[in-house]
Amino acid sequence: MTAIAPLPSSTSASAFRPRNGAILTTGILFGIIGLMLGGSGAMTMVQTLMMSQLAKTDPKAMSEFGGMQDMMWTASIVNLVIYGGLGLLFIAVAYGCFAGRRWSRPFALTLAWGWIYMGVTMFLSLAVMMGGMRDMMSGIMESAAKTSPQAPPMPAMDGFFTIIMVIYFVMIVLFMIVLPAVIVWLQWGAEVRLTLESRDPVPRWTDRQPAPLLGMAIAAALFGLCSLPYLFMMGSSFLKPFLPEGPLKHFWIVVPFVWAYIAWGSYRRQLAAWILALGLLAAGTWIGVHTIQRIDWADAFSQMGIPGMEPGDLAKWMESLFQPTRMLVMMVGSILPLLGYLIWVLRYFRRVEL
Question: What is the pLDDT of residues 72-85, one digit of tens each?
Fold first, then answer.
């Protein structure tokens, strides 16, 4: 097998300043977050199991829980697979940092940049949805007050909602934007790369392609893995109302495999992979907008069987929350960064010669 030549660098290997402290700190952060993600996935399973056991002691609670049992178990399994898988990946990256493996840096940067993207998207979505969320919370509190007239009076909605929103925004900024930005800062620069190469002198598969292309391949592989659990949810009451009608509902069956090819093709610099990624992004956007516009929320909540709430009231609040203008702003805000990234990495792709 031909040896992989290390990437050229303007920084001399004999003149760089080792960044072992930054690499170690990155590993600690990834290890802590990985354990938290794995614990979150496991806790949803434990919570659902405990609720099912407690419901057996009360016939009324058991009848209410029975309507939601399918939805809760499905959501718990999906959370376990996704959060547990991400937790294992974060722990693996932490190990790579502790052991000084050169492949850990591309993974750390890809996960951190994706983490920042998720944080910015969540911040934008929360800002756009604030008005609808306030109306929804007001409606829920009014319904609770009507059904329980003997309960103590509810706190003032304005102050209560403001406190909740401030806490949400602060948490998103700190843990979804600032924390991954610190990881990017710790891993940035040629000195970190040269430190890892000096500790792990054997070239790895991550040295064959430039970092932006590796990021796309890693991200596509993660998208494929995260979409796998939904193959087993196609017939569940939780997901059925959100699936497109007609033959389009079978589109989701091929999504994990398309992402798998995009990951492999991106690593091989195949232009077809880039075109498929762009097409999948456009198709997902169109299906998402179309689904929100056509969904019958009352029927969806009736199928889910949420106890203690009237499907009509829930449908009215969801229709107010997902107004077309809000959805358009959210979709544009989330799609533009991905589209910009695809345009940026296009220069690394080449046509496959037959």
Answer: 777 778 888 888 88
Looking at the domain assignment, is residue 255 inside a domain? yes
Here the tokens at position 137 are: 């919370």
Taking each helix axis from N to C terminus, what angle separates 211-227 and 271-294, rounded to the nearest 10 degrees? 40
Residue 111 DSSP SS3? helix
Handedness of CA 195, 201, 207, 210 (dihedral sign): positive
Cβ contacts of 346 within 8 Å, gap of 6 or more: 274
DSSP 3-state assignment of 350?
strand
Q: Choose one of 82, 99, 116: the last residue of a domain.
A: 99
Residue 354 DSSP code: -
Q: Are residues 139 and 267 in the same domain?
A: no
Statement: residue 3 has pLDDT above 50 = no
Residue in this structure with the two tokens 């991200």, named with its chain if needed: 219
Q: Check if the beta carbon of residue 133 is closer than 8 Å to that of residue 326.
A: no
The answer to whether residues 90 and 114 touch, using CB atoms and an 8 Å cutoff, is no
> What's this model's pTM, rounded to 2 decimal places?
0.79
Count of domains in the chain? Answer: 3
Rg (CA), the chain: 24
At 233-284, the pLDDT tens digits run 666 655 666 666 666 666 778 888 999 999 999 999 999 999 999 998 888 7
Are 271 and 351 within 8 A, CB to CB? yes
